[in-house]
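Q: I'm building a small set of examples for a reading group on sequence design. Run inverse folding on the following structure and report the sequence directly after it, with nothing in between.
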């Protein structure tokens, strides 16, 4: 478990908690750079499923409980849930959906978090490239080859894992929840580009962990969503 507390903008009016697995650490930089937040706490449990999917997974149980305890004590204005979805959460959804175990475990966590925060911002799913982006970028550059790491943008309904995750989130009854995903920031109508066109450097560390350039890319989308979630109409408020 990695715990990080920062206060880059002490004059801000709000606080934030970022939770999840390694994706929480990778994405938290964008949250830290929002001047609305006077304090940001990031809790990332690498290689762990958050929330836990089985009582037998002791690391996941301990990590999830620790995050809920910090949420209770810190009572942040916004909780960001950023994680890599696997296991039950990407499996086929059972019918009726209210009896689906994946829905139940997420619903349990969301209901607990909702007691302590004004808003919950959830990364709906991750985009995965078929290649390890940064290693492939280096390999192509070393061979003086033109770097083209564009991937077709498929309909979300054609991506089975994302489809199952979406169905589970759609089944939640959460008035405080707001959703987003990476594709808003770096995908066009037909493809997603793993390379930043301005710097010609990779957005991704490998195939699904984002780097600092991607955080800069999706930060405006998160900032806008934060204002919507907190009902902030004054763009200068911080």
């Amino acid at each position: 478990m990695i715990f990080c507390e920062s206060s880059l903008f002490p004059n801000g009016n709000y606080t934030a908690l970022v939770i999840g697995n390694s994706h929480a650490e990778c994405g938290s930089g964008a949250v830290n750079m929002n001047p609305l937040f006077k304090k940001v706490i990031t809790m990332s449990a690498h290689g762990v499923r958050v929330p836990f999917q089985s009582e037998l997974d002791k690391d996941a149980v301990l990590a999830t409980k620790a995050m809920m305890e910090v949420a209770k004590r810190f009572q942040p204005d916004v909780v960001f849930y950023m994680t890599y979805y696997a296991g039950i959460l990407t499996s086929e959804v059972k019918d009726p959906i209210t009896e689906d175990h994946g829905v139940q475990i997420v619903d349990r966590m969301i209901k607990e978090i909702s007691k302590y925060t004004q808003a919950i911002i959830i990364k709906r799913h991750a985009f995965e490239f078929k290649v390890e982006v940064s290693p492939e970028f280096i390999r192509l550059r070393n061979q003086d080859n033109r770097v083209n790491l564009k991937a077709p943008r498929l309909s979300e309904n054609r991506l089975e894992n994302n489809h199952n995750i979406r169905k589970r989130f759609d089944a939640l009854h959460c008035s405080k929840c707001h959703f987003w995903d990476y594709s808003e920031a770096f995908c066009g109508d037909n493809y997603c580009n793993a390379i930043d066109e301005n710097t010609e450097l990779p957005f991704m560390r490998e195939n699904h962990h984002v780097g600092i350039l991607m955080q800069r890319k999706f930060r405006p989308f998160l900032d806008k969503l934060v204002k919507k979630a907190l009902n902030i109409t004054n763009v200068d408020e911080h």
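The mean pLDDT is 90.
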